[in-house]
Amino acid sequence: MTMHNHARPGQIASHVIVAGDPGRVEYIAQTYLKNAELVSDVRGAVCYTGIYDGQRISVMATGMGVPSMLIYATELFRDYGCEAIIRIGTSAGYLSSMKRHDIVLSQAACHTTAINDGLFNGTFCPIADFGLLRLADREAHRMGQAVYIGNTVCNDRYYRLPESYRSSSWADYGVLCSEMEAAGLYTAAAQFRKRALMIVSILSHLDRDEAGRETITPLPQGEQTIDNAILLALSTAAADIREGQDGAL
């Protein structure tokens, strides 16, 4: 047990799907996991372990923001021996072509957080595990899901301050979307030599008004739902476990 997780050794699977919202975690566990068991609920960060597609998988809430993600990812990797974490969440997209619940696989995470300042003689770049990224792309094609793959940005502030705007925007450099946790997850994975991937579902569009300030426009609901991204995360985790057992990866 840790300060933030009261699961006993062995109760959390090697592969964990994490989400910020406890309600979303409960929904995943109740909807998609067989024999789901609640193994921890400290501070509302519920964690369930069950079976998906024949594989043992856990789902856990992490709260919002880099510091919260860094706490839970560190304890899952360091204290519970988890091998891979896949984050499922929502995001605001920069591309005008994006529709509601389009899926982004985060290859790397630009960030505005200071969590790694002073740790290196340079700038650390948090990136996804290539094996998980490749597998998620393959699973998306198998499931008939179109995905965007590329750079994303992890912001500490949800409500941006006017003085934080710059003449160049993230979109000018090909960044796909903005969220709040990937840099913490990818940093923890690197520190403990583990594996991580972020899969996000687009909910809104980020643009600029005439004064150059960022604006957030909710996208209209279409045929897709966040379940598309949830299923992709679960299928990727299950495939990774299965192929790891077969020695394919």
Topology of helices and strands:
Elements: E1 15-19, H1 22-32, E2 34-40, E3 47-52, E4 55-61, H2 66-78, E5 84-93, E6 103-111, H3 130-143, E7 147-154, E8 177-179, H4 182-191, E9 195-208, E10 214-218, H5 227-245
Parallel strand pairs: 1-4, 1-5, 5-9, 6-7, 7-8
Antiparallel strand pairs: 2-3, 3-4, 5-8, 6-9, 9-10
Helix pairs in contact: 2-4, 3-5
Descriptive tags:
single chain, 249 residues, alpha/beta, Rossmann fold, 5-stranded mixed barrel, 5 helices, 30% strand
Provide a brief overview of the structure.
This protein has 249 residues and is α/β, with parallel strands linked by helices.
Description of the structure:
This protein is of the alpha/beta class and about 250 residues long. It has helices spanning about 20-30, 65-80, 130-145, 180-190, 225-245; strands at about 15-20, 35-40, 45-50, 55-60, 85-95, 105-110, 145-155, 175-180, 195-210, 215-220. It has one domain: Nucleoside phosphorylase domain (Rossmann fold). Helix content is about 25%, strand content about 30%. A hairpin with a 5-residue loop joins strand 9 (about 195-210) and strand 10 (about 215-220). Helix 2 (about 65-80) packs parallel to helix 4. The longest helix is centred in the last third of the chain and has 19 residues, at about 225-245. It starts with 14 loop residues before the first strand and ends with a helix. The mean pLDDT is about 90.
Residue runs with pLDDT of under 50 for 5 or more positions: none
Identify the CATH homologous superfamily. Nucleoside phosphorylase domain
CATH architecture: 3-Layer(aba) Sandwich
Structural class: alpha/beta
Question: How many structurally independent domains?
Answer: 1
User: What would you report as the Rg, rounded to the nearest angstrom?
Assistant: 18 Å
Number of helices: 5
CATH topology: Rossmann fold
Give the averaged pLDDT, no decimals. Answer: 92
Give the fraction of residues assigned to helices.
25-40%
Please summarize the sheet with the most strands. Answer: 5 strands, mixed, barrel
Q: What is the CATH C-level name?
A: Alpha Beta
- Strand tally is 10
Provide the spatial order of strands within the biggest beta sheet. Answer: 5-8-7-6-9
Distance between the termini: 31 Å
Q: Looking at the structure, what is the overall shape?
A: globular
Order of helices and strands: EHEEEHEEHEEHEEH
Our estimate of the beta-strand percent is 25-35%
